[in-house]
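Hallway conversation turned thread

IA: we were arguing at lunch whether anyone had actually written out cytokinin dehydrogenase end to end. Turns out nobody had. So, for the record, here is the sequence (535 residues) and right after it the structure tokens. Reply here if something looks off.
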Amino acid sequence: MNREMTSSFLLMTFFAICTLIIAVGPSELLRIGTINVDGHFTFHPSDLASVSSDFGMLKSPEEPLAVLHPSSAEDVARLVRTAYGSATAFPISARGHGHSINGQAATGRNGVVVEMNHRKTGTPEPLVRPEEMYVDVWGGELWVDVLKKTLEYGLAPKSWTDYLYLSVGGTLSNAGISGQAFHHGPQISNVLELDVVTGKGEVMRCSEEQNTRLFHGVLGGLGQFGIITRARISLEPAPQRVRWIRVLYSSFKVFTEDQEYLISMHGQLKFDYVEGFVIVDEGLVNNWRSSFFSPRNPVKISSVSSNGSVLYCLEITKNYHDSDSDTVDQEVEILMKKLNFIPTSVFTTDLQYVDFLDRVHKAELKLRSKNLWEVPHPWLNLFVPKSRISDFDKGVFKGILGNKTSGPILIYPMNNDKWDERSSAVTPDEEVFYLVALLRSALSDGEETQKLEYLKNQNRRILEFCDKAKISVKQYLPHHATQEEWVAHFGDKWERFRSMKAEFDPRHILATGQRIFHNPSLSLIPPPSSSSASW
Ligand code: FAD
């Protein structure tokens, strides 16, 4: 850095520190300033700006007062202990990769964001233990990097998200789902151990054997009880290749019957991934997630549907090793024979396992090149009980959505018995439930149906419809406005959730961006006695 740059940097830092002093009081700032971390704090405007918005782009960005780039769990713990022990405890949020929709990883103006995914501070590399079939990873690690590392040993995690540029701590705070969840459960069902920094600044190791309540509470716990600094993820031998198949249906009943049949299979002969999506307009079959269909050979709905009405696409894969390439055709044929799709609508491709798992990133790069990635995303993800999925189809896919959707609409079923009841994640009270993911992008210069207000209003109508029709949906990646709604969201789990908050984050320091515990009134809760807050 030359002298001019150094002095302007120092000046900016000085102004940021002054702002901090005014906002949180000189004693708190002095305490932050004196926290001895191996990583570093930054007050630089560009760093504050970079953590102040998220993938959703639905809220005006609110810059925090400081960002911590930690190098260890102890760095995170030192910051939290400072907040916990101070007179006006300030909010602290872990930020994984900022892929939330509604500011869940933000703290507002008085907080400190812990930037978990920051390689430069020397956070630990993934450590694979091939004999024990697990990998230990830093909480801010991206799944794509976990995959790269484990593949060096011919191993891979079992349960995925569709997109890999998400952090381990971020998806484990929700659930982490994709087409493997029907068999392996969500990502939170495939964790063996965690290290967590609680809202009191304690570093706690937890697992099925040790601090069990905290272990299950943190999984799907929306960041409320602790910051995950390490996760031990279960592995399996990685397949080398994937046969990826899409088939179409015009009947929702037949489509869901086939999906439900496929997720009931758990033996050797089964598909490894079961998803699906809804096609209400022709553009969508060739949508951004469909790197599958070649742009030079777009699929014409009219070629498979006579009346242009809603179609449903089942998406399945069969994993295999190169050495099994002669049996995979046979296995796929046997499995497909049981399905009742439109016979002329089979689309098949074959690719490397890693390319299949990383498929959405290719679409991201395309959208980025057209400036269509960094746009508002009013996404709505719902878990719908199996018993009401056909009512949902009639009311939403064939009703509220009209014939333009502005983005992919995923739909696939999962088995509830693959979810651990003791986790904080919330699912409908039925053996089988569906994910319906309305993944829309808003365009300011698009048609009326692509505008943000239109899409937000449509989301509201969908939720109102479910409410009126008494379809007991649960939001996935939930966003609720009032505590009453949160209580209803958690249902039977609320009391435990609330009491765990009181135990592990009594001053409501962590993940305030989720807005579960409203108006934390941090300063009203007295700081603990100095002995318990010291380090
Ligand atoms: P952030 O958005 O940074 O954080 C999310 C929440 O977790 C915040 O409250 C934050 O404070 C908290 N948090 C973050 N790190 C930690 C930590 N280490 N410890 C404790 N709390 C923490 N989800 C699926 O399940 N399946 C999918 O297929 C899927 N696909 C997606 C595709 C795209 C393009 C996008 C944008 C999102 C997708 N998601 C999917 C949603 C994703 O799981 C959530 O956005 C999730 O929040 C992870 O994102 P993140 O790592 O950026 O976390």
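OS: looked through it. The longest strand covers residues 226-237.
IA: good, adding that to the notes. The chain is about 30% helix and 20% strand.
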